[in-house]
Specification:
CATH superfamily of the largest domain: GntR ligand-binding domain-like
CATH class of the largest domain: Mainly Alpha
Distance between the termini: 57 Å
Strand content: under 5%
CATH architecture of the largest domain: Up-down Bundle
Mean pLDDT: 83
Structural class: mainly alpha
Order of helices and strands: HHEHHEEHHHHHHH
Length: 242
């Protein structure tokens, strides 16, 4: 029995295709498959316990997302996320996270706000202990609480996808106590703005949080994990317009 047998999880064809796509996508974004590496239908199908058909269908969807390139009569090759892609994603996220924070301010429930506060307190505790793995998990959860609180499934879906696209480089940027501590301070300020019902400030802080995270990556050369970058690619802090 394969360790990861998708058929044991779901028998519906559409869900099977979706699970296969999600698994391959996760493996590309996590770095299991490297840039320019060939993805073999048969090997992946055997690993996941499925036929070649859902793997082939997943490849087509992955090509639409720009994560692989299918070359006729040759095969499917990983393109992955480049340094420019990361910059684009963070610029887009800076705007969308700002909008998400604004909507979350209006829609967050007491339960969600309580969880957000607890998240910040726990992150401060683990930062003091140097528990960087826990900090990364808490950072992920903080953003997902806000995504859920915005009360828009469309915006939540977009942000979850973008969040996943840069998971490898995000883990690196939070792997130092200095940045993880600063990041959580930014989370606290954002949480306090949402708690106070200040949508303008929440939007501004969420926007700036993304810019600061990206600029930290550039400053510390962390984009090397995603592709070659050249020159000063840091981003300014453009003001949020009404």
């Amino acid at each position: 029995m394969n360790e990861y047998d998708v058929k044991n999880e779901v028998s519906d064809k559409y869900s099977l295709r979706g699970r296969v796509f999600s698994k391959i996508r996760e493996d590309i974004l996590s770095g299991k498959y490297k840039e320019h590496e060939e993805l073999k239908e048969v090997a992946i199908g055997e690993e996941m316990g499925v036929s070649r058909t859902p793997v082939r269908e997943a490849f087509r969807q992955l090509e639409l997302e720009g994560l692989i390139q299918i070359i006729p009569n040759r095969g499917a090759y990983v393109t992955g996320i480049s340094a420019k892609d990361v910059r684009d994603i963070y610029m887009i996220r800076s705007r969308l996270e700002g909008l998400c924070a604004r909507w979350a301010t209006a829609n967050i429930t007491k339960k969600q706000l309580d969880e957000m506060e607890e998240n910040v307190y726990l992150a401060e505790f683990h930062a003091g202990k140097g528990h960087l793995d826990q900090i990364t998990e808490l950072d992920n959860r903080f953003h997902h609480i806000m995504y859920e609180a915005c009360n828009s499934k469309m915006l939540e879906h977009l942000l979850v996808d973008y969040h996943q696209y840069v998971q490898r480089v995000r883990q690196k940027t939070l792997s130092t106590v200095n940045r993880s501590t600063e990041s959580n301070k930014e989370h606290r300020a954002l949480m306090e703005a949402i708690k106070a019902g200040n949508a303008d400030l929440a939007e501004k802080l969420a926007h700036e949080h993304m810019i600061k995270a990206y600029n930290n990556m550039v400053k510390n050369g962390l984009l090397d994990a995603t592709g070659n970058s050249s020159g000063d690619e840091s981003m300014d802090h453009p003001e949020i317009e009404d």
